[in-house]
């Protein structure tokens, strides 16, 4: 892969605002970027489809169609980014000391550029199997883009190009977003004989939550990921200074490792509430991900990447959805820093390296 081509393509991707509109109401969303990706892939010779997954939310898919008889490879990257609060010029890519700066440069337009370049290389190689380049919406919130890909596309293996610092990630954590609501009784602040303070009732719940997190982290159960964890995210309750609050809601997150199901977490939530009047709710759940080191795609990527370090990563990624759909999947991507931060950058040499690895994997798998 030509370094100049990597810089040119990644710069073009960073210049397009694709902030997720669920995170930032009124934000641009993915349509403009999806159409740019589709146009670039079509010019490179791939068969292209742009799909509106939900109103204003778009996927772009390009297929380097094989001649027949070879295995297929799916490459996946997300189009959306988080917001840009505090950034001076988020969509003006700057190159300094081998790094490219800008919103989404690391998370994950670098991975997107790498799979686009690998898709174009697959066309030139004339492989027997298909190489499917999937550029998806909404990974930063609910992953509706990859959920649609998992429904509509089949492949013999997949690589998700989330940043891994050129390490091969074979596992990542899942998460369960939850709410615990405590009940009180509204009354004037002068009537303690009538009022019941729902916020105060949350106190023992928070104590038990901290104790649960301490127990989880003291007992690692997974070789690559260690342990699960739990934390409080938001507490909401009360309506005015002079009233007893009738309800208080704790919103939190439980990070899970393989073997920890949603059912396990639901039991934990009931234990956290204990005998306090209230209720618990799971509002969003994503399963953890794991691929065996002996899986053919894991061995192939490791060989093409020069036997990188095998790791688990703490963040959740769309790899879990692809794996759950029956596609053997690994995560391998570039190096950098600043995901969701004010200063974000990616190492350009690592992007070039990833594009080359993806192309090499395609040559072997799809030959």
Q: Report the structural category.
A: alpha+beta
Major sheet details: 9 strands, mixed
Proportion of helical residues: 25-40%
Number of domains: 2
CATH topology category name of the largest domain: Aminopeptidase
What's the topology here?
Elements lengths: L2 H13 L15 H13 L3 E8 L2 E8 L8 E6 L15 E3 L2 E3 L3 H21 L5 E6 L7 H9 L4 E4 L7 E5 L1 E10 L3 E2 L9 H21 L10 E9 L5 E2 L2 E10 L5 H12 L4 E9 L2 E2 L5 H9 L5 E4 L5 H6 L4 E4 L3 E2 L7 E3 H18 L2
Parallel strand pairs: 3-6, 3-7, 7-17, 8-16
Antiparallel strand pairs: 1-2, 2-6, 4-5, 5-19, 8-15, 8-17, 9-13, 9-14, 10-12, 11-13, 18-19
Description:
With 367 residues, the chain is of the alpha+beta class. It has two domains: 247 residues, Zn peptidases (Aminopeptidase, 3-Layer(aba) Sandwich); 113 residues, Alpha-Beta Plaits (2-Layer Sandwich). Strands 1, 2, 3, 6, 7, 8, 15, 16 and 17 form a nine-stranded mixed beta sheet that branches. α1 crosses α3 and α7 crosses α9. The longest helix is centred in the first third of the chain and has 21 residues. It starts with a helix and ends with a helix. The model has no long low-confidence stretch (mean pLDDT 97).
Keyword list:
single chain; 2 domains; four-stranded antiparallel β-sheet; alpha+beta; elongated; nine-stranded mixed β-sheet; Aminopeptidase; 19 strands; 367 residues
Give a quick precis of the structure:
The protein has 367 residues and is an alpha+beta fold. 33% of the residues lie in helices and 27% in strands.
